[in-house]
Design goal:
The structure holds three protein chains of three kinds. By secondary structure, chain A is α/β, with parallel strands linked by helices. Chain A is 21% helix and 20% strand. In chain A, strand 9 (244-249) and strand 10 (254-263) form a beta hairpin. By secondary structure, chain B is an alpha+beta fold. Chain B folds into two domains: 5-197, Alpha-Beta Plaits, CATH 3.30.70; 199-238. Chain B contains seven helices and ten strands. The longest helix of chain B has 42 residues, at 199-240. Chain B starts with a strand and ends in a 32-residue tail after the last helix. Chain C has one domain: Fumarate Reductase Cytochrome B subunit, CATH 1.20.950.20. Helix content of chain C is 63%, strand content 7%. In chain C, helix 2 crosses helix 3 and helix 6 (117-143) packs antiparallel against helix 7 (148-179). By secondary structure, chain C is α+β, with helices and mostly antiparallel strands. The chains are: A alpha/beta, B alpha+beta, C alpha+beta. Chains B and C meet through helix 3 and helix 7 of B and strand 1, helix 2, helix 3, helix 7 and helix 9 of C.
Chain lengths: 323, 272, 230
């Protein structure tokens, strides 16, 4: 999106994705958005990235809408109904309605011959001899007769694993053939520069991603994140529990202010913050400007060359006390 | 024979997720800024060799409940081992907030606020919201003997990892209705090893209060009866007294019956 | 013998009567609103916080009015307190006759001043218990939740016992008031000369002329000097 290579991307729909919290390096994300000709945001909340969109379609929450049938094919396969419990708030709409309305305007009526979600779902359910009323009568879930998927492989004496040996491989000859390390070897990572701590992040069971910080009951239990600092390291910096600090990373990017939690629960060369705070959106009235954003501070990341997995705990921050 | 119910909370299983707190608030429609129960984390020592645990701050449903003994209206009472609340009777006097050895009850919205053991659910044969919700099955509810036995078994199981693990509540205060499986000694959690209802509280409830009522009633009775006799005596005395003279006479300081005197008026305080 | 007019003596000023009666009202309100927490059958008065609210409202005049009187009448207050806490030989003698006095006999009592020994005792104990009930009430009002079981028990017992004392003293006060027809003095502020002679002769002797009024049958009151012997 920024370089235009291998090909330019000029249009983006951000559907239920909190762009400025889900992706590291917020400045980078903003730069990418600025290259777009068209950017549409579909969300249930007035999240930070929504303010950047050309078009905003406010979505009804899962309690206010029908969704596609939930078909789950694991060990005990089942199909579950997802239906509204209350009417949607204000002018919010379910996704099926948005998609249908857009489709019709784009000349795709043929693909949307159903008028309502119920019609659509009934049509799908009829293929297994059910309809919405019957499914509801069963408690909204139907367990399908199925067998563990491994049984098929066992019958044919085949392996479900796409490896040469047919087994789970810790040492992978196939990687060796591609001139890559067949067994991962530890490579030391860069240590924090003097005066900096490694920025680590994680979750609290109270909140989910960056989307519940504004929910009243959860906001009450945890309204902001805190920066965990080893208590002895904190004392050396003259910091006490409850002090507010700004976090500044190795590239000069800042986030905060955030409360200090001086605790023995963390080693002295690292700090920890819970992900999903530091919201900028004024619409999130309870979460607005509370705590610090890990995504903002993660301006660097390393990518595993084989799996593409991103390592984000490679940023370092220093703490400066708020006046 | 009525069932004696109890909770148990296994602090080894507890993950501090606070789903119990949210379920309790939602299920009992507790106002937003209040809560019946709370979870906090405690830590002792220094990284990397520190002791950490989640701790629950909530009603222990004491067998001998101090709050029940001081409650003047009967809003707090015992039901099958649980300390339950009748909000309509509560006067918000706040005695319970000071009497409780664990500082659990507090006053919100003009009535006592504390775990009510989801009495409606329990009477319907279900478990309270917290026990139903706990994703790690740390909170159990049921018949006390079984809950206690299961808690003891659990302590034996985790003893290898936590040599100081113990069941808190087997005998304290008449046996607690919330048995806490602690990972360390009670003092580490700020819990008293042997709490008791203080003598002063007992004296106030058992002696001073009844005595106050009794003595007042006695005073009323005594004066009531005496009045009959005394009034007759006084009226007799008044009738026998000489009528007040219109003119002044020589005043004398009388021993028996003071005659009307016309002493020189002295400068006296205006206070009539 | 009775005549067309009656000689009266001023005993209590309007300010004093006001403080007394408002005191009565507030005291009884506090007593009955407090009793809801003491007597289980009356607990329904407390439900929902009704008695608590009434109790808290009544506290204000109960405490503030005496304080206001003290501030506005410092000299009189000081005199009253000195008088009430000073017990003379005559007072001790009076106490020996107390049982007889209780049963309606004033014969044989040493002559009393403005307030008799029993009244002094009543004032003194009421004053002390007023201070205790107010102070312990203050602790209970503002310290709730921070007292702990012992603190609560001590404050509550001090409150209960001082209130018990005030109530028993009030019962005694009512008793003697009705027994000795003294109610009028606090209603009108005046007592008859006959009453004064019987109950407080030493006070009567020392009164200035303007303390007397003459009340005619029609109810007119005119200030009259004490008649002198011709």
């Amino acid at each position: 999106m920024i370089t235009g290579k291998p090909y330019p991307i000029k249009g983006l729909i951000a559907y239920g994705t909190s762009l400025f919290h889900t992706l590291p390096n917020v400045a980078h994300t903003k730069q990418a958005l600025q290259n777009l000709d068209f950017y549409m945001a579909v969300d249930t909340l007035p999240q930070d990235h929504v303010a950047w969109a050309d078009v905003v379609l406010p979505e009804a929450t899962y309690l206010e809408r029908y969704d596609e049938l939930w078909a789950c094919g694991h060990k005990t396969p089942y199909i579950a109904l997802r239906e509204p419990a209350v009417e949607p708030y204000a002018q919010t709409k379910p996704a099926w309605w948005m998609v249908r309305e857009l489709g019709i305007r784009l000349g795709l009526e043929d693909f949307f011959r159903w008028q309502t979600a119920e019609e659509y779902l009934n049509a799908r359910l009829s293929s297994i001899g059910l309809n919405l009323d019957k499914l509801r009568a069963q408690g909204g879930i139907t367990v399908q007769p199925g067998k563990p998927w491994l049984a098929d492989f066992e019958k044919e004496n085949a392996s479900p694993f796409a490896t040469e040996s047919g087994k789970v491989e810790f040492y992978a000859p196939s990687l060796e053939k591609s001139k890559l390390k067949p067994l991962p070897e530890y490579e030391p990572v860069a240590e924090p520069p003097a005066g900096y701590f490694r920025l680590t992040y994680g979750r609290s069971p109270v909140h989910t991603f960056s989307r519940t910080q504004n929910t009243p009951m959860l906001n009450e239990l945890m309204s902001e994140n805190e920066v965990w600092v080893n208590d002895q390291a904190a004392a050396q910096l003259g910091l006490r529990n409850g002090d507010r600090v700004m976090l500044e990373n190795q590239d000069g990017v800042k986030s905060g202010p955030i409360k200090v939690k001086a605790t023995p629960r963390i080693r002295s060369d690292a700090v920890f913050i819970v992900h999903g705070f530091g919201h900028d959106a004024p619409g999130l009235t309870r979460a607005h400007k509370k705590g610090a954003s890990d995504a903002m501070l993660q301006t660097r990341y390393t990518l595993d060359p084989i799996s593409g997995g991103a390592g984000l705990r490679v940023n370092f921050v220093k703490l400066s006390k708020e006046a | 024979m009525a069932t004696r119910y109890a909770f148990s909370i296994d602090l080894d299983r507890c993950i501090g997720c606070q789903a119990c707190v949210v379920a309790c608030k939602t299920g009992n429609e507790v106002p937003l800024t209040d809560s019946f129960i709370a979870v906090r984390d405690i830590v002792r020592g220094q990284s990397p060799n520190f002791f950490g645990s989640f701790a629950h701050q909530r009603c222990f449903h004491c067998g001998d409940a101090a709050c029940v003994s001081v409650c003047p209206t009967g809003a707090l009472s015992k039901w099958n081992g649980l300390t339950v609340v009748d909000v309509d009777k509560c006067s918000a006097c706040g005695y319970c907030t000071d009497a409780c050895p664990y500082k659990v009850p507090h006053i919100t919205d003009n009535h006592v606020s504390k775990c009510i053991a989801c009495l409606d659910l329990v009477k319907d044969g279900e478990s309270p919201w917290c026990a139903q919700t706990c994703p790690s099955q740390a909170i159990k509810f049921g018949e006390r003997e079984a809950i206690l036995a299961s808690a003891k078994t659990r302590v034996a199981t985790i003893a290898a990892r936590y040599p100081n693990a113990n069941v808190y509540g087997e005998t304290q205060l008449g046996g607690l209705g919330l048995l806490m499986i602690l990972l360390e000694k009670p003092a580490v959690y700020g819990l008293p090893e042997k709490p008791e209802i203080t003598l002063r509280l007992e004296a106030w409830q058992q002696v001073v209060q009844p005595a106050s009522v009794g003595l007042t009633l006695t005073a009323v009775a005594v004066t009531g009866l005496s009045f009959i006799i005394a009034r007759r005596q006084h009226l007799r005395e008044k009738a026998a007294a000489p009528a007040p003279a219109e003119t002044a006479a020589e005043g004398k300081s009388a021993e028996v019956r003071p005659e009307q005197s016309a002493a020189e008026s002295k400068e006296r305080k205006e206070n009539g | 013998m009775a005549s067309e007019s009656m000689r009266l003596v001023r005993r209590y000023l309007p300010a004093q009567r006001l403080v007394h009666w408002i005191g009565v009202l507030t005291f009884l309100t506090l007593l009955f609103s407090g009793i809801a927490l003491l007597v289980p059958p009356l607990a329904f008065l407390a439900a929902g916080g009704t008695s608590r609210l009434i109790h808290r409202i009544a506290i204000v005049p109960f405490v503030l009015l005496p304080i206001a009187y003290v501030i506005l009448n410092p000299k009189q207050t000081k005199e009253l307190l000195v008088e009430s806490f000073t017990f003379t030989r005559d007072d001790l003698e009076w106490f020996k006759h107390m049982p007889a006095y209780f049963f309606g006999r004033t014969k044989g009592l040493p002559p009393q001043g403005r307030i008799n020994a029993g009244q002094k005792l009543h004032h003194a104990t009421t004053f002390l218990m007023f201070v205790i009930v107010a102070a312990s009430g203050f602790v209970l009002l503002f310290g709730k939740g921070q007292l702990g079981p012992d603190g609560l028990a001590l404050a509550a017992m001090a409150h209960d016992l001082s209130m018990l004392g005030l109530t028993v003293m009030m019962i005694g006060h009512l008793y003697f008031t009705l027994l000795y027809d003294a109610l009028n003095s606090m209603l009108t502020g005046f007592v008859t000369e006959e009453y004064a002679k019987m109950e407080h002769p030493k006070w009567l002797e020392e009164l200035p002329p303007n303390a007397f009024v003459v009340k005619s049958k029609e109810g007119d009151q005119t200030s009259a000097p004490k008649a002198k012997s011709p």
